[in-house]
Amino acid sequence: MIQRVQSIFLFLVAVAMGITLGMELWQQTVPSSGESYRLTAFFLEQFDTSGAIISTTSYWYIGTIAAFVGLLAIISIFQYRNRARQMMINMVNSLLMVGLVAIVFLTTNGVNAELALEDSGTYMIGFWAVLIAMVFNMLANRFIRKDEALIKSVDRIR
Question: What are φ and ψ of residue 107, in 5° steps?
C-alpha cells in the first residue's frame, strides 16, 4: 500500500536528495583576497572577485551518493510487502546519508585548512537537506516498525 505514512516520508527523502543535487552545499569567502569557493554536489568552484570561475574540482562522488540515496528511497517505497527488506534498505540509506554528511564536512574542512581560515564557511540549503532527509528516513523506519508490530499483534490474536 503506497499511501502509507512511511511512503510519504520516503518520498520526502527522495525530494530532499533532489534538493541536495540541485542546490549549493557550502560557500566560503576569503576576506583578504575576496575570492570565494562554492561546493555543489558535483563540483568545488573557485571564483575571483568579479565572479568569474578560476578553477573547478570535480567531486562527482558526492552527487553519486546523493542520487543513490534518493533512488534507494524510491525503491524502498515499493517494498511495502516485505517490511524487513524495507527497513534494511532504509538502514543502508541512513548509513549512506551519514557518510554523505561526513564527506561534505571533511571536504569543507580540507578547503579551509588549505586556505588557513578561522571561519568555516556557510553550509547552504543542499547540506541541510541531507540532514532533513535523515530525519525523514528515521520517521519512515519508525512507522514501518509500527506496522510490523501491528501485523504481529493481529497474528497473535488469530
Answer: -65, -45
